[in-house]
Amino acid sequence: MPPLHRTLPALRRIRLANTRFQTCSRLQTCRSPVYSIAQQSRWQATAAHEAQPTADEGDASKDTPVKEIRYTSESYPQVQRDSRFKELSSDDVKAFRDILGNASSAMVDGLSEDASDDIEGYNADWMKKYRGHARLVLKPSSTEQVSKILKYCNDNSIAVNPQGGNTGLVGGSVPVFDEVIINLSRMSQIRSFDDVSGTLVVDAGVILESADSYLAERGYIFPLDLGAKGSCQIGGNVATNAGGLRLLRYGSLHGNVLGLEAVLPDGTIMDDLTMLRKNNTGYDLKQLFIGGEGTIGIVTGVSIICPQRSPAVNVAYFGLESYEKCQQAFREAKKQLSEILSAFEMMDGNSQLLYSRASGAKLPLESEYPFYCLVETSGSNTDHDSEKLNTFLEHVMGEEIVSDGVVAENETQLQSLWACREGVSEASQHFGGVYKYDLSIPLQELYGIVAECRQRMEEQGLMGEGEDKPVVDVVGYGHMGDSNLHLNVACRRYDKAVEKALEPWVYEWVKERKGSISAEHGLGLAKKEFIGYSRSENMIKLMKQVKDLYDPKGIMNPYKYL
Amino acid sequence: MPPLHRTLPALRRIRLANTRFQTCSRLQTCRSPVYSIAQQSRWQATAAHEAQPTADEGDASKDTPVKEIRYTSESYPQVQRDSRFKELSSDDVKAFRDILGNASSAMVDGLSEDASDDIEGYNADWMKKYRGHARLVLKPSSTEQVSKILKYCNDNSIAVNPQGGNTGLVGGSVPVFDEVIINLSRMSQIRSFDDVSGTLVVDAGVILESADSYLAERGYIFPLDLGAKGSCQIGGNVATNAGGLRLLRYGSLHGNVLGLEAVLPDGTIMDDLTMLRKNNTGYDLKQLFIGGEGTIGIVTGVSIICPQRSPAVNVAYFGLESYEKCQQAFREAKKQLSEILSAFEMMDGNSQLLYSRASGAKLPLESEYPFYCLVETSGSNTDHDSEKLNTFLEHVMGEEIVSDGVVAENETQLQSLWACREGVSEASQHFGGVYKYDLSIPLQELYGIVAECRQRMEEQGLMGEGEDKPVVDVVGYGHMGDSNLHLNVACRRYDKAVEKALEPWVYEWVKERKGSISAEHGLGLAKKEFIGYSRSENMIKLMKQVKDLYDPKGIMNPYKYL
């Protein structure tokens, strides 16, 4: 497995008053090559903004043909097909054809003919970890078609799997058995944009990056950003309540989504696609569909408030001696950068070494530190923002909160500093595999789990340099500004002993601190069994009540979520 | 009815480059006297941030004793007591006493003794427009007590009326018949605050201003502000999804509330009081209680993310020649003030004349204009903010978008400029009465309804200077930044002909533009019948489904909402 090609960055040191702060130069941007599944050529990244894994051409383990991916039904033998669901017949296909019309793009029909080459890309997720047995993909082009499809499925007890860009991390976007895939990609129109209020209305199938590009031309920005932006769809973002890089600044989709259009299992169209910022007339039902992961209905349209795009963006990267100092730096950043702070990311020293080791990139700072932080500002005035950032940097250096750091001077350097953060996900998978945990933990205790997990692996003799050790390293990084930690256990191979050492230990650790076992990735199939670690029995009971209310036959994205 | 005392402001004109911009000086602050109901001494203002009405000592019409306020059951004869609900007995009082203990502050018992003097303040709203027949007020001091009370009421079909600060505008916070009032004021503890993340956890009964003062001492701000802050409670703010003055900057409660603790009618405690910014583990049920107006449960605890407090605040007030120019100014403010813009309010010329006429205050600008706007910035750096604001002002003056304007130089002037906006509500009621509409309308058409309404009143001969004309003036103002218009028809007396000319015409006008008939005031009793103008039959049906799910016996805040 050859290392990824990178050019070692050379840094130009610039002295600020009383500080050792550097401005980085000639750092090379490190855009990853596109990672493809079957015929699908697109960015395949996480629903949760992490950089997508990349692979060199010759990396066989990552080029596993879809047909060689293990079926989910085999890796989860405890999950059995629900016998209430009807098996598809040619009559069903004919009924769907009547709804969708004869356009070849409207359906992938693996029942009437052998369409396995076309269909497998829809059956498998981008991690090549989950694979279903679907033989039919429907691609409606309108909300009315979605309504007719769901009504037919509900009437006939046919299970369905809603699918957007299929970039999720928890197996929520692909079927387990023979669920009909309802893929929203043909619903890709921007319906309207109001350039005074910033309200954008789109079909669910609009690609996030397309929407953001459309907005950029008009001086606006989509209030959500994530690594998968090139292929994830806004409907899927909403259905999974994607978090991502801009949450610290612009808040969650629960606040930004103004209105939704969604289709319930019985075909009812929930026409709540308001463009109003304020509308206090009744229960805010749309919120149930934000993060509902397609289990109570399919989002077909989204109305969202978009902020002005900031012309000035700065990124700084620095080294710190302890997690306590990371917290101090965050507190100071909030105070001094205040309204222009748009990201505060933390990466531990091991994560940066792993990134450097896997990618061959030299890290931006000359010395090594136990912790690193990346701070981004976005504002309307370049001079003001630079002044604020410099004042902040002088303060944190002067107070010895931060030990060393660099500031990007141009877009290329900015991308390179971000790569040190976003490249960790890729680096974690580089040595063969990775156990990934996406956790919310109160800020004070956020890093504790990484240190303990590392110690645990060492004590159990599972981690080391030798090929006999399954674990390469334990690293922690994430959105410190959102109390969201990514705990990655990079390994040479998947190993039952490692799994046993990790679970349920990780979940118990998080539960004790009242954290969340899934901060932004959702439940899907992967976390379904573990919801009890983050939710009480009462809450789970109330959630099941809602599921039963909207989807009494249980046809929507079955085997997942609750 | 004497005019309110005010000192005429004298303005010091300051020339900016190429502009006629002024800095105001010696504007006098105009804090309104406290308006009291019965024995209750507190700020009595709207749940929706409007300045509370004030009255001179001698203003008899506003000093109507509570016992002279007409019962809601008389003003709404079509609303009949639901016979399913049990009438209270002494056994019920004893049961509640067992739950609450013997503290005299825990109960106002109008069944066992004559407590009418004590109880009437809880029966009537601050507008003195709604009055119920409750004979029992329960004041639990813990979530467990709320749970036991509701379980008892549900088991015995006893209707309840949850009550916070009782500052609402739509009759939602007082009973109609003999519902038991569950008042949250004794649950008033701040439970915790994390000064790194800014997460505040409070009992529902904490007064908004108390929470904000607590936060101010720690450099934080509550992300909601409204005129009633001195008496409204955070639980009530959440239950009514209060909007207010900071929504443009910090977004809605749907985005800021991180967790809720609420009690369902059957006594189930919904323990969703997470302090996590991100938690994607299941349906976000708490959202149903935000804006649920106490109809499916009682909010007992709130966890909310609070932003850093901005040390620099600026306010500018200017005159414009048309509504089109207001929109241009708003667009420029969003672009140039961007991250520091914290309010953009619009007041039409008539609203400012009415304010001046009612209050005796001289307006800040020497000439009269058909429109005025108030712009507020909040940021972390005084110099930067002033520079941004001046650049913006020079631009809008240079481009002749704005005709004239003033900028506050100190806190007193800042308050005085805000008074021109907040004083309109009071001024509208000054001449005897007011028909108030709180509307969301797409920005382009926002002002159209005011012009048409004015014309309508004139054409029907209802408006004029003579005492025989019921209508004094029609004015429009509001949160332009949120597309939220307050349409006020100031009148000398309430008159059936005026009412007939206004309704359902206003609601139809709003419906045609896909607006909302209640942007931030909620439904309560006042708007219950009109929800169909802003929501489709499908949506109302789905909402009723949720109501039936959580409150099958209908005991929660009956006769209101849906």
What does this entry show, briefly?
Chain A is an alpha+beta fold. Chain A is 29% helix and 19% strand. The first copy, chain A, has 17 helices and 18 strands.
Walk me through the structure.
- Chains A, B: One of its GO terms (molecular function) is metal ion binding.
- The structure is a homodimer of 562-residue chains.
- Chain A has 562 residues and is α+β, with helices and mostly antiparallel strands.
- Chain A has four domains: 1-30 and 311-427, Alpha-Beta Plaits; 60-183, Uridine Diphospho-n-acetylenolpyruvylglucosamine Reductase, domain 2 (2-Layer Sandwich), CATH 3.30.43.10; 190-305, Uridine Diphospho-n-acetylenolpyruvylglucosamine Reductase, domain 3; 431-521, Alpha-Beta Plaits, CATH 3.30.70.
- Chain A is built from 17 helices and 18 strands.
- Chain A has helices spanning 72-75, 90-100, 116-123, 143-155, 208-216, 234-239, 247-250, 253-256, 286-289, 323-336, 349-359, 382-398, 411-429, 448-459, 496-502, 505-512, 537-550, and strands at 11-12, 22-24, 107-109, 136-138, 160-163, 180-183, 190-194, 199-203, 257-263, 269-272, 298-305, 312-320, 341-348, 371-379, 404-408, 433-440, 471-479, 484-491.
- In chain A, the strands form three sheets. Chain A has a nine-stranded mixed beta sheet with strand order 1-2-15-12-14-13-17-18-16, with helices on both faces. A five-stranded antiparallel beta sheet of chain A has the order 7-8-11-9-10.
- In chain A, helix 2 packs antiparallel against helix 4 (143-155), helix 10 runs antiparallel to helix 12 and helix 11 (349-359) crosses helix 13 (411-429).
- The longest helix of chain A has 19 residues, at 411-429.
- The first copy, chain A, is globular, with a radius of gyration of 24 Å.
- Residues 1-20 and 24-62 of chain A have low confidence and may be disordered.
- Chains A and B meet through helix 8, strand 10, helix 10, helix 12 and helix 17 of A and helix 8, strand 10, helix 10, helix 12 and helix 17 of B.
